[in-house]
Write a structure and sequence with these properties.
This protein is mainly beta. 8% of the residues lie in helices and 32% in strands. The chain contains one helix and twelve strands; from the N terminus they run αββββββββββββ. The strands form three sheets. It has a four-stranded antiparallel β-sheet, with no helix packed on it. A four-stranded antiparallel β-sheet has the order 2-11-5-8, with no helix packed on it. The radius of gyration is 37 Å and the shape is rod-shaped. The termini are far apart.
């Protein structure tokens, strides 16, 4: 049986040579990739409210006030998907030639779940600002504006059925 003796010095020398011949390992170069997207702002919109029906009034020689029947607290839903913090405001008025008539006054006393400034108005044919939000909160794009309307019916109002058409207009920026 033959014995093979390997000198540790020789083995160490061979391993050192092998390590010396290897190229150093470098990390891959850093590459960069841009991920691009364009986000466009949506609109400033109002959900349709439909009708506000008021309780019937029976003339009795006195001025009377009518309140809504259902819903008792009509509200507008306004959605701000502009993606901006600039404020907005809401105006209301009768459509031309579509006012209540009969000497009646439609009063709106708004309040909001967003803060802002709500302004009570007597509806007319000229646009009046009923709500202002100076700075929009991007985390709260939906506003509920409770209207709390009432109609003042004078004692000498002619007996009839009356209908008015209200225009709601949400406008970007500060009121003029």
């Amino acid at each position: 049986m033959k014995k093979i003796i390997v000198s540790t010095a020789l083995l160490g020398g061979l391993m050192g040579t092998a390590l010396f011949l290897q190229s150093p390992v470098h990390a891959a170069e850093n590459n960069k990739t841009n991920a691009n997207i364009t986000v466009s702002g949506g609109g400033l919109t109002i959900d349709e409210l439909g009708e506000i029906n008021f309780e019937s009034i029976t003339l009795n020689g006195q001025q009377q006030t009518a309140k809504p029947t259902a819903p008792k607290t009509p509200a507008l839903s306004i959605h701000d998907y502009r993606g901006k913090t600039t404020g907005w405001y809401l105006q209301a008025n009768y459509e031309t030639d579509k006012a209540l008539g009969g000497g009646m006054t439609l009063h709106v006393n708004p309040s909001s779940d967003q803060g802002g400034t709500a302004t009570p108005i007597d509806m007319g044919t000229d646009a009046a600002t009923i709500y202002t939000l100076t700075t929009a909160d991007l985390s709260k794009p939906d506003t509920t504006l409770t209207l709390d309307p009432s109609i003042l019916v004078p004692k000498n109002t002619p007996a009839a059925s009356y209908t008015a058409t209200i225009i709601w207009n949400a406008v970007e920026g500060a009121p003029a």
